[in-house]
Structure formats: structure tokens, C-alpha cells
Specification:
By secondary structure, the chain is an alpha+beta fold. It has a single domain, classed as DD-peptidase/beta-lactamase superfamily (Beta-lactamase, 3-Layer(aba) Sandwich). Helices cover 35% and strands 20% of the residues. The protein is built from ten helices and nine strands. The strands form two sheets. The protein has a seven-stranded mixed β-sheet, sandwiched between helices. The protein has a two-stranded antiparallel sheet with strand order 4-5. The protein is globular. The N and C termini lie far apart (51 Å).
């Protein structure tokens, strides 16, 4: 089957090859982990199960709550996939830049911020599903699969392959592909350092869209996700970085509730900030 890829000259193919060779997802091992069970109180008080991990980039050490879930359990990416969808859209020219507008289709949806024409930057920050479904349709399944293979997105081993088995505009929402919290953290780390196999300018656009708080003490960038597991549990994500004194730390929070109607929207960010506060952040001293 021929892939529906944009034309790339030999120099560009060489460039991509070098980038792909450098794409190594960092992961934790027993030697660089500190398990912090005190963080369990934040999960208990919010009536959720889940895990949290923070990586100190300077030392390579991880602070983790619920290591088994963090490292070994996979979940649908939900809207955290907008990170990858944006990068693929930009790299293939389906998104021209982060100011490119996709017209609203006129369908009223529950999130009022989605019911208008949006740029990529705006759509990313309000997590507009319809915008990114249209981007995915424009990318196409073969091209999307090519880039997932290149990233080894969700793959459990170097030889593993995660295959898009459902519609190209919903596979990240329907549990047909999954990713571990460890892989989520690794992806964000590679993005932060412009080490993903996409042009640096495109990685910078996505990081700019992820940066929600920027002040004298810290910079906080993240992407959230909200979906439903195969057993109809509510699942929430928030993954990103916090930077103090030009020193980045990378994090991922994964939470789950057996109550399908559980409101993930306010809980994810509150839990993240409570945990980071306990760990000493937001004062500019880290």
C-alpha cells in the first residue's frame, strides 16, 4: 500500500532519518525511582485511582506514586493526542501554522468555546475535538499511521506496532490505541527539547500552545485529556512540564473514576497543583 505522504526530497529524508534515530523515550528503572506514597492522599480525597510521576531533568530521577500503573498500564490518550495530531498536521502541511483557521461546521456542542471558527492555537487550548477530528481526516489514515510508527507511539517494545484499526478521526478516543503514563512523560520530555522527528518550529508552536502559566517564579505547560475506558470508567490525564530557574521537570497525572459522570475538568489541574505544591514548586526555589 502506498502511503499518502507529502513529497520529500533526499535531503529531507536524510534529515528525518537522523531525527528518528535520535527519538528515544526515556523511562524509569528501579535505580532512579523514589516512591512517594504520601501523594496517595490527593487521590483518596478526590475519590479516584491513578498514578503520578515527576522527572527531575537535571538528575534523571523520578518521584512516583503507584509505580505499577505508571509504568505498566496503558490507557486511551484522549485529548493528550492533540500534541501528536498538531505536530503531524503541521509537518504534513495539513495545518499551515498555529494561526490557521478551520471553520466551525455549525453544529452546536456542549462546550461553547468550540462553537466558532478556531485557529490551531485556540483549538488546542480549549481542547476542541471537532477541530482536531477535521485535522485527522485531512491527514488521512495512511499518513497518520506512518507517523505513529515513526514515533513508536504507544508501542510496548521496539518491534511492537500500534495499528489504527478504527476511524482516523476517533481512534484516540475509543480505546483502540493506548499509551502508558511513562510514555506520555517521555513524549513531553522529547517535545520540550525539540527532539521529536518534526521541524523545531512546529515543536515550538505546540509548546507555545501548551504554556498556560508563565511568571517570575515558574512556567507551567501541559495538555489535558478526558475519556472513558473500555469498562466505562471516566479517565483523566494531564501531562507537561514545570520549569523554575530554567530547570525543567516533567510530569504526568493519570486518574480514573468508576463513576462515568465524574467531572474531570476541575479535578486534574487541582490535583496536579496540590501535588506540585507539596513537592516544593511554585515558589521559584526549585
Amino acid at each position: 500500500m502506498m502511503l499518502n505522504l507529502p513529497k520529500i526530497d533526499l535531503a529531507m529524508r536524510f534529515f528525518f532519518s537522523l531525527l528518528l534515530l535520535s527519538f528515544l523515550i526515556p523511562s524509569c528503572s528501579r535505580n532512579n525511582i523514589k516512591t512517594d506514597n504520601s501523594l496517595g492522599k490527593y487521590f483518596e480525597e478526590n475519590n479516584v485511582e491513578g498514578c503520578f510521576a515527576l522527572m527531575d531533568n537535571a538528575t534523571g530521577k523520578f518521584t512516583v506514586y503507584n509505580l505499577d500503573r505508571y509504568r505498566d498500564s496503558s490507557y486511551l490518550p484522549a485529548s493528550t493526542f492533540k500534541i501528536v495530531n498538531s505536530l503531524i498536521g503541521l509537518q504534513t502541511g495539513r495545518i499551515v501554522n498555529d494561526s490557521m483557521i478551520i471553520k466551525w461546521d455549525g453544529v452546536e456542542r456542549r462546550v461553547k468555546e468550540w462553537n466558532k471558527d478556531l485557529t490551531m492555537y485556540e483549538a488546542f487550548r480549549v481542547s476542541a475535538v471537532p477541530y482536531y477530528q477535521e485535522v485527522a481526516r485531512r491527514i488521512g489514515k495512511d499518513t497518520m499511521q506512518f507517523w505513529l510508527d515513526s514515533l513508536k507511539y504507544g508501542a510496548k517494545t521496539d518491534t511492537d506496532k500500534v495499528v489504527i484499526r478504527t476511524a482516523v478521526d476517533s481512534f484516540w478516543l475509543d480505546n483502540s490505541i493506548k499509551i502508558t503514563p511513562d510514555q506520555q512523560l517521555g513524549l513531553v520530555k522529547q517535545l520540550y527539547f525539540d527532539q521529536l522527528p518534526f521541524f523545531k518550529s512546529y515543536q515550538e508552536m505546540v509548546k507555545r500552545a501548551m504554556l498556560f502559566e508563565n511568571n517570575a517564579n515558574y512556567r507551567l505547560g501541559y495538555k489535558t485529556g478526558w475519556g472513558f475506558t473500555e469498562n466505562d470508567h471516566a479517565l483523566g490525564w494531564i501531562t507537561g512540564w514545570i520549569e523554575e530557574n530554567e530547570h525543567p521537570y516533567f510530569f504526568v497525572l493519570n486518574i480514573e473514576s468508576a463513576n462515568r459522570d465524574y467531572d474531570m475538568l476541575p479535578v486534574r489541574l487541582k490535583m496536579l497543583k496540590d501535588i506540585l505544591t507539596q513537592l516544593g514548586f511554585f515558589k521559584g526555589n526549585m
